[in-house]
Amino acid sequence: MELEHKFCRIGADVTVTDGTRIAGYASLFGAADQGGDVVAPGAYALSLERLAEEGRGVKMLWQHDPAQPIGVWDEVREDGRGLYVKGRLLEGVGKAREAAALIAAGAIDGLSIGYRTRRAAKNDQGLRVLTELELWEVSLVTFPMLPSARVAAKGEGPTEADLRELARSLEAARRELTGG
């Protein structure tokens, strides 16, 4: 299974206060994305339950890079609209300070979720309706990344080698997309 990403622009749905506090929707239910996917209400429920039972949280990353955590999501929950997140950039982390400055300048304008699809089905309009997702992380991003990284087989958790491979794949995609 590939790790997939969904993108949401910072704006009406996401607010940044005090330069470090972030709140808003990382995913909206019922809205078709450019890839023809629609997230159904309840798609994150089992994943969020499992994370809570295991005492783990959803990671806040910089550009989907597992080697660059930049903050903490203090609240991640589903409501009637979508996946709501609320958290803070950690001022003691250099990349988090950079992210805050880039957000303030308008250079960074999005959130993107990293997840694996556990259950989905095509609807009569040909859209893939995602009914169960395994949420891994919510990243601050410049633009959505290509979902080209392989992480783990279905039902397995990522190994350290998987995470290194994911980081290499995402860096290669970033270089390809930015020409650098």
Automatic annotation (TrEMBL):
GO molecular function: peptidase activity
Domain Prohead serine protease residues, every copy: 18-154
Pfam entry (one): Peptidase_S78
Keywords: Hydrolase, Protease, Viral release from host cell
Source species: Mesobacterium hydrothermale
Keyword set includes Protease: yes
GO biological process, one term: proteolysis
Domain of life, per lineage: Bacteria
Name used for this protein in its record: HK97 family phage prohead protease
